[in-house]
Write a structure and sequence with these properties.
CATH superfamily of the largest domain: P-loop containing nucleotide triphosphate hydrolases
Order of helices and strands: HHEHEHHHEHEHEHEHEEEEHHEHEHH
Shape: globular
CATH architecture of the largest domain: 3-Layer(aba) Sandwich
Radius of gyration: 23 Å
Strand content: 15-25%
Number of domains: 2
Strand order of the largest sheet: 2-3-4-1-5
Number of strands: 12
Distance between the termini: 40 Å
Helix content: 40-55%
Largest sheet: 5 strands, parallel
C-alpha cells in the first residue's frame, strides 16, 4: 500500500511548498516506517493489549523542517486517536494530573482516574494520558525543569508499556537533554529509554527554512504605520507557521515573568514589556538563552525622560548581540534616530550600531543555528 505520508510529502515537493532536501531523507524514511507499523499493529482499543511500535525522535538545528515533517506525518497517521502538542504544554497537563491525584480524596481520584493503580500518581496520570491518544507528536522536546526531569522516566515507562507511540522534534539529541541539570545522573536512564523506544534521526541540513523567510523580507519596520504593522504581523505569522503561541514563563532568581506570545524559540513582545519594566541583565540573559528570534514591537523615539528605558534597551540589544539572536523590530525610527540626544545618547550609539548590524543579511546568515544552552537561572515554559 502506498504511504499516505510519503505521498503528501512528494505532493508538497512537486507543488513547491517544500524544497528537496537530502538532509530530510532519513526522517522521511523513519516516519514512513512508523506509519506502516501503526497500520499493521491493529490495536484492540484496550490499553493493556495495545501492541507497541517504535517511535521517532527528530533532532537538529532550528528551521530544518522537523516540525513540518512531523505535521505531515500527523495528518496522514493511520490512527484515529492521536494528538499533536507542544511538549511543554503536555508536561504542564501532566503536572496538573499529578497534583489532582495528590490533593484529591478517594472519590475524586476514582472519578478522575478510574480504577486504583496503587499509590503512584505518575502511573495514574499516564493512564489518563494514554486514554486520550495512541499516538503523541511532541514539538520542541526539551527538558530544562527539574520537576519535569524527575517524573519523565516513570511517565514514559508507563506510556511505552501501554503501547503509546511517540514522535518528537527537538533541537537537542537525546544525550544532550537536561545538560548540566541538577541531579542529571538520575535523568540518564530516561535518555537510554528514549533511545530504545524511539528511532533517533538527525535532521541537520545546511538550509534554515525559517531564516529563508527572514532573508526574503525586511527585519526593521519603520515608521510605525499601517504598512509597517502589516509587514511585521505577516512576517511573524510566517515564522510561526503551524505553531501556536503557547506562551512561556522565565524564572530568574525566583522571579517569574510570563511572555504570552511565545512559540518554541520565537518570542514577540512589546517594547514597554521589555524595557519599560524594571528588568535587568539577568532577565535579558534568560531571554537570550531561551529564544533565538525576537520580534520587538512599538519601539518609540526615546527622549531624556525615558533614559532608563533607553539604557535597558541598550542592555537588551547587547545581550541579544552576544547571543547571536535574530531580531525583527517595529520602530518609530531608524536605529540612529532612536535616541539622538540627551543623557546617555552617546552610550546608546553602540546599541544603534549593533541594531544596524543585526538587520543585515550577513548577520542573518551567521546567526544562532541551535537552541542556546539554558541560562543559569533555568527558564521554565508554562501553558
Amino acid at each position: 500500500m502506498r504511504s499516505p505520508f510519503r505521498a503528501a510529502y512528494e505532493a508538497r515537493l512537486h507543488g513547491g511548498a517544500l524544497r528537496p532536501d537530502a538532509a530530510q531523507a532519513g526522517a522521511v524514511e523513519a516516519l514512513a516506517r512508523l506509519e506502516r507499523d501503526l497500520a499493521e499493529a491493529h490495536p484492540s482499543g484496550l490499553l493493556r493489549r495495545a501492541r507497541a511500535v517504535r517511535g521517532v525522535y527528530l533532532h537538529g538545528p532550528v528551521g530544518r523542517g522537523k516540525s513540518a515533517l512531523m505535521d505531515l506525518f500527523f495528518e496522514a497517521a493511520p490512527t484515529a486517536k492521536k494528538r499533536r502538542v507542544h511538549f511543554h504544554r503536555f508536561m504542564a497537563q501532566t503536572h496538573r494530573l499529578v497534583n489532582a491525584w495528590r490533593t484529591g480524596d478517594g472519590a475524586a481520584r476514582l472519578a478522575r482516574f478510574g480504577r486504583r493503580r496503587g499509590d503512584d500518581p505518575i502511573a495514574s496520570a499516564a493512564a489518563v494520558i494514554a486514554r486520550e491518544a495512541r499516538l503523541f507528536c511532541f514539538d520542541e522536546f526539551q527538558v530544562s525543569d527539574i520537576a519535569d526531569a524527575m517524573i519523565l522516566g516513570r511517565l514514559f515507562e508507563q506510556l511505552f508499556a501501554g503501547g503509546v507511540a511517540i514522535v518528537a522534534t527537538s533541537n537537542r539529541a537525546p544525550d544532550e537533554l537536561y545538560q548540566d541539570g541538577i541531579n542529571r545522573q538520575l535523568f540518564l536512564p530516561f535518555i537510554d529509554m528514549l533511545k530504545t523506544h524511539l528511532e533517533v534521526v538527525a535532521v541537520a541540513g545546511r538550509r534554515d527554512y525559517r531564516l529563508d523567510r527572514l532573508r526574503a523580507g525586511r527585519t526593521w519596520f519603520s515608521p510605525i504605520d499601517a504598512d509597517s504593522e502589516a509587514g511585521f504581523d505577516a512576517l511573524w505569522g510566517e515564522m510561526l507557521g503551524a505553531d501556536a503561541e503557547i506562551g512561556a514563563t522565565l524564572e530568574v532568581f525566583g522571579r517569574r515573568q510570563h511572555w504570552p506570545r511565545a512559540a518554541g524559540g520565537r518570542l514577540r513582545a512589546h517594547f514597554n514589556s521589555l524595557c519599560g519594566e524594571a528588568l535587568g541583565p539577568s532577565d535579558y540573559l534568560a531571554l537570550a538563552g531561551r529564544f533565538q528570534t525576537l520580534f520587538i514591537e512599538a519601539v518609540p523615539r526615546l527622549t531624556p525622560e525615558r533614559r532608563d528605558a533607553a539604557r535597558r534597551f541598550a542592555t537588551l540589544i547587547d545581550t541579544l548581540y552576544e547571543a547571536r539572536a535574530r531580531l525583527v523590530v517595529l520602530s518609530a525610527a531608524e536605529p540612529a534616530a532612536l535616541y539622538p540626544s540627551g543623557d546617555g545618547a552617546f552610550e546608546f550609539q553602540r546599541a544603534a550600531s549593533r541594531l544596524e548590524e543585526m538587520r543585515s543579511a550577513a548577520w542573518l546568515a551567521g546567526g544562532a543555528d541551535t537552541q542556546a544552552a539554558p541560562a543559569r537561572a533555568a527558564p521554565v515554559d508554562m501553558p
